[in-house]
Amino acid sequence: MPNGAEIIKDYVSEFSRLQNWMLSVKDKAPDVYSSMHDRYIELKVTLASLGVNLAELDKIKE
Description:
Blueprint: H1 4-25, H2 30-49
Helix pairs in contact: 1-2
């Protein structure tokens, strides 16, 4: 079973990758961006609840 640090690391990695993908499709595929946005919010809320400071990580800033 993963410990808290491993879970946070995995979520931070996913959050970072997702943001990069979102930024690359924002103007080209708004429907894809919108569907990714739901996961972005889920990850953002989860990371914040785990005490992760998103100030430096959040490139979307919505």
